[in-house]
Recover the amino acids of this structure.
């Protein structure tokens, strides 16, 4: 019998009110059931939000440095349980163990950053235009934060949102992706163990339509933080707009790596293999386009295909595996349908382009790392997010053309250029439309203490990570203290002074 897991609502581990459940399975071996989780609905969300409203009253009164101490303890607990959480994560979503360890490490880094922020949360002071008057702005928590996260970074992304939200004094209702309910549960267990008051953190399992939408619609939720696809982001945006809620969206990407003729090709090759096929291409920052300058094109493509053909598919727990499974059958079908689109559009397939079913691979959802050449910027495979191990290669003549091609998608998350020429590098920094640009590094590898997010259809202008995420989870309050003992009228009294 598979282990039974629960929601955490109003300080208690509990079933969905309907009593219904869903299974969590291993995408490398679909026969393996990792647990059974509550299939929650609107009524569970409602209970969780009411609990969070009560939790908020208590938590907001705890001094921020003390909240920071609790975040420090969460970080310590993540260190203690890192290996175990990483193994569970590889089982539930497939990426290789080295990467799931990295995913937990990002949570650890985020916890320690939050701990330090408990002693900062800086406001601002400014001089008054009137005598004997003092002006200051401070940050205050917003209230109940609704947190909705995807399956590809089951620990890192929830921590990017939940730790800053809590550190600022908000309470949280957390809906993890239903493909990764186990890691979400582990995180909530550790938050409670570290000392977050039970009602300040609530966990509701279930799908986007049955839990996600009711959470976004709920009038008791004051701020929503969502990471996922642009299509769902749009839907959430229109619902939460009606409620005039604060909303932070981190959405899709169609990231490109440029390689100029003068680049260090060995380095650029390592970069694109890691960027395109790490996490089986299922990263918002994955390299899904490679833009090559014509002088190195032939040689680079040849070496790239050879390296790609040698990548080993397998279970992410096996240390010889380079590329794990994709998340589920539906996603594998979606990836394959894009491969068919690419072929119909006239792109040429050099490797991959099919599921891998030999031996043990038949038990899971494996797809061979795929490379298309003769891709043009107008093709759908050059513009749309595929979210799988598929790389589209485009050829350009100049830096200007490379940047134009890079910018020719609706997305703007991450970007990369390999060149030894400092002038070209700085031109790229100036003209690339993206939230993140790497020089001589792949499109993946963001650090937890710097702003993270993108432009165009990748988001709505917020940045997670580092110091910027604290703007998402706080309201500014401006305070004027008049110690003159008389009624001073701003603007009007300063007008009089001048007259
Ligand atoms: P998704 O389908 O948009 O789902 C993301 C989350 O939203 C899941 O928890 C999902 O629940 C929930 N959801 C689905 N439909 C919803 C709705 N109508 N209302 C409210 N919530 C809803 O995305 P995904 O397939 O999990 O993740 C892949 C996408 O995330 C890609 O587009 C990727 O680029 C993007 N992503 C972006 C970033 C970034 O920081 N920019 C990082 C990682 C991933 P269920 O799945 O349980 O139904
Ligand atoms: Mg699973």
């Amino acid at each position: 019998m598979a282990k039974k897991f629960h929601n955490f609502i109003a300080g208690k581990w509990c079933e969905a009110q309907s009593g219904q459940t869903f299974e969590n399975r291993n995408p490398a071996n679909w026969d393996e059931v990792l647990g059974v989780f509550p299939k929650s609905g609107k009524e569970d969300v409602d209970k969780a939000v009411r609990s969070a409203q009560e939790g908020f009253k208590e938590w907001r009164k705890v001094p921020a440095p003390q909240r920071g101490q609790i975040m420090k303890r969460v970080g310590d607990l993540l260190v203690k349980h890192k290996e175990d959480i990483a193994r569970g994560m590889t089982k539930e979503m497939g990426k290789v163990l080295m990467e799931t360890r990295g995913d937990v490490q990002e949570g650890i880094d985020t916890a320690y950053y939050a701990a330090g922020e408990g002693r900062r949360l800086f406001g601002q002071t400014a001089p008054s235009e009137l005598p004997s008057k003092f002006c200051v702005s401070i940050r205050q928590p917003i209230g109940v934060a609704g947190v909705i996260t995807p399956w590809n970074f089951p620990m890192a992304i929830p921590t990017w949102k939940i730790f800053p939200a809590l550190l600022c004094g908000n309470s949280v209702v957390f809906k993890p992706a239903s493909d990764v309910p186990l890691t979400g549960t582990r995180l909530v267990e550790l938050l409670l163990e570290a000392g977050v008051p039970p009602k300040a953190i609530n966990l509701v399992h279930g799908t986007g339509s049955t839990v996600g939408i009711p959470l976004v619609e709920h009038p008791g939720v004051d701020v929503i933080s969502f990471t996922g696809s642009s299509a769902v982001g749009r839907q959430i945006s229109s619902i939460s707009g009606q409620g005039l809620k604060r909303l932070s969206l981190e959405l899709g990407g169609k990231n490109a790596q440029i390689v100029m003729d003068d680049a260090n090709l060995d380095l650029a090759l390592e970069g694109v293999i890691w960027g395109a096929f790490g996490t089986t291409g299922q990263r918002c920052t994955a390299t899904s386009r490679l833009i090559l300058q014509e002088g190195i094109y032939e040689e680079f493509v040849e070496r790239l295909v050879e390296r790609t053909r040698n990548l080993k598919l397998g279970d992410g727990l096996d240390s010889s595996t380079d590329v794990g499974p994709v998340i589920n059958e539906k996603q594998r079908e979606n990836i394959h349908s894009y491969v068919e689109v690419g072929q119909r559009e006239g792109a040429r397939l050099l490797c991959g382009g099919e599921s891998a079913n030999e031996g043990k691979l038949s038990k899971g959802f494996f797809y061979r790392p795929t490379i298309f050449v003769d891709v043009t910027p107008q093709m759908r495979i050059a513009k749309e997010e595929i979210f799988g191990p598929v790389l589209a290669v485009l050829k350009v003549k100049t830096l200007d053309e490379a940047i134009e091609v890079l910018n020719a998608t609706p997305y703007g998350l991450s970007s990369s250029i390999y060149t030894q020429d400092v002038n070209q590098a700085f031109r790229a920094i100036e003209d690339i439309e993206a939230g993140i640009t790497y020089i001589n590094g792949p499109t993946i590898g963001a650090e937890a203490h710097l702003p993270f997010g993108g432009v165009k259809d990748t988001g709505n202008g917020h940045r997670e990570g580092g110091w910027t995420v604290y703007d998402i989870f706080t309201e500014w309050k401006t305070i004027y203290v008049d110690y003159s003992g008389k009624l001073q009228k701003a603007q009007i009294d300063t007008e009089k002074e001048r007259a």
User: Anything to note?
Assistant: The chain has a mean pLDDT of 98.
